[in-house]
Design brief:
heterodimer; A: 265 residues; mainly alpha; disordered N terminus; B: 249 residues; alpha+beta; five-stranded mixed beta sheet; two-stranded antiparallel sheet; 8 helices; 33% helix; elongated
Chain lengths: 265, 249
């Protein structure tokens, strides 16, 4: 097929030789890194966010139900491996590469105040908020104070103490809205950018779906926050499961195990 | 009574490395005037608002009917074609500056060769050159024509790139125009012979992945190209191509 050899790049490049660089056709690995960033926002991070918000929603049933949920999550097989592989590593990648993406974009909403452009900017700002919030949230709630994997009964009290500070409460409310915004618009962006919703009408309709999801998640999240600061469970006990000292379910006694096998056979 | 005039402020620069300054002009109003014809008035009488002799404004323009793509510039803060920017519909003083993301050659004339380089990088053509008659090409069905025609309207004005928050020197993003042309030529029955090469090119640094879907391109496009739809479709094709190449490697 007649595809003439390209002349030397130095002859064809811009006579002024400045400005935005042309496409580096087929070179580099930013495509893979960018797509991984996009995908990691949906799975596993988005899936984890939904799990987290659903778990938090248990707080509305009170300290004991919340403790049971924390205990259940910490009893998942290989839970520490899951935590590192499905939460910490993807979250760190999404956060750091996301900041890199955001810093390279040049928002121009002042000149072009169009809705898509606003959302572009908001996605970056909610990302920054989420970044700072999640960093302190993980440090203070996961790695400082009472260790919840060993003491699930202390979960409600620990969060309640954190939210008793009105500044912290404000931080949590703002971050809850920002994170739900970032996630729901992120789903919309994912569908648009991966070619799932190429059509303008499809994107508009899916926009309603994502907006609804975002509002529902945010309301659920804010309701959970209310469970900790509202009047119903005020002054929750420091540990509602004081006997619970370790995670692992009691192992079956050898004879019991054999008896069970025999019965099944 | 003095004749009606219009106020224009133009960001001027005598050469690529010269400093830029704003110069004010007061130009006699004429019915149906557009930004280009206003600058023609300046060229006919190159005197600025202070009454000093100055040089005519340098700018690119050709067809004056929004079809050649030459006269894109930033008018009152918006990237648009100067020929279709009617003076009577613009707020005064009309502030005109060159496109901000392309190197200035002089005044309002900028170097947009990056788009040409990008179109070459993705082989945005139908490869039918040869030494013998290849006969007539394959038939193109009307449905295909309906899809392709809007994409073929691109006038390479670079407005979509100018307004894109991702098109800048840090990302080196290819821009919506080139991606739309990839969709056009990949859908052409003869052009699709280069489909895989085009998609692989767009997976390179500065390719489709840099799109942030701010959708400014589709808002700013003077020819109403379905740019976001093209980006969505082409990104899917690029992703599938990358996966295929990985699995067939």
């Amino acid at each position: 097929m007649a595809t003439a050899a390209r002349p030397d790049a130095s002859q064809t490049s811009s006579p002024v030789g400045r400005g935005v660089e042309p496409l580096r056709a087929g070179k580099g690995n930013s495509f893979l890194l960018r797509k991984l960033h996009s995908l990691s926002g949906i799975v596993p991070i988005g899936a984890f966010l939904i799990e987290h918000l659903l778990s938090n929603f248990e707080a509305l049933k009170g300290p004991l139900a919340y403790a049971e949920q924390v205990k259940f999550l910490n009893s998942l097989p290989l839970v520490r491996v899951l935590e590192v592989c499905l939460i910490f590593i993807p979250l760190a990648y999404h956060a750091l590469y996301g900041v890199y993406i955001a810093l390279r974009g040049k928002a121009n909403v002042i000149y072009y105040p169009w809705s898509g452009n606003w959302m572009y900017m908001m996605q970056r700002w909610t990302g920054y908020i989420a970044f700072v919030y999640i960093l302190q949230h993980v440090i203070r709630q996961r790695f400082m104070g009472v260790s919840l994997p060993e003491h699930p009964g202390a979960a409600f009290h620990k969060v309640q103490m954190e939210l008793s500070n009105p500044w912290m409460l404000a931080v949590y409310v703002i971050a809850m809205i920002a994170v739900c915004w970032h996630f729901s618009y992120g789903i919309w962006l994912f569908a648009a950018k991966w070619g799932i919703t190429p059509g303008a009408n499809a994107r508009r309709r899916f926009g309603y779906v994502c907006a609804l999801l975002g509002v529902v998640l945010a309301i659920m999240g804010l309701a959970s926050i209310y469970a900790f600061v509202g009047p119903e469970y005020r002054n929750a006990p420091a540990d509602v499961m004081p006997a619970q000292t370790h995670l692992t379910a009691p192992a079956w006694h050898g004879t019991e195990f054999l008896r069970a096998r025999k019965l099944r056979v | 009574m003095a004749e009606k005039t219009i106020q224009i402020e133009i960001k001027r620069q005598s050469g690529p490395d010269a400093p830029s300054t704003w110069e004010k002009f007061e130009v006699p109003w004429k019915p149906g005037m557009n930004v280009i014809s206003a600058m023609m008035e300046i060229a006919a009488n190159p005197v600025n608002a202070e009454g000093q002799q100055t040089t005519p404004i340098a700018y690119d323009s050709n067809c004056l009917e929004e079809i050649c793509g030459s006269c894109a510039m930033v008018i009152n803060g918006k990237a648009r074609m100067a020929c279709s920017a009617l003076v009577d519909k613009l707020e005064q003083p009309i502030r005109i500056q060159p496109l901000t993301k392309f190197p200035v050659v002089r005044d309002l004339a900028v170097d947009r060769s990056v788009l040409f380089e990008n179109l070459k990088a993705v082989k945005a053509w139908v490869p039918v050159d040869g030494t013998y008659d290849l006969g007539s090409g394959p038939r193109v069905f009307p449905q295909q024509q309906e899809m392709a025609y809007p994409l073929s309207n691109c006038i390479s004005c670079c407005c979509c790139m100018e307004v894109c928050p991702q098109f800048n020197e840090s990302t080196g993003f290819v821009g919506a125009a080139t991606i739309a042309q990839v969709k056009l030529f990949n859908s052409h029955p003869s052009g699709k012979v280069l489909k895989e090469e085009r998609l692989r090119a767009l997976a390179g640094d500065g390719g489709v992945q840099e799109c942030g879907f701010a959708q400014n391109c589709v808002q700013a496009c003077p020819k109403q190209l379905p740019l976001t739809e093209a980006i969505s479709d082409v990104t899917r094709d690029v992703t599938l191509q990358v996966v295929k190449d990985f699995l067939r490697a």
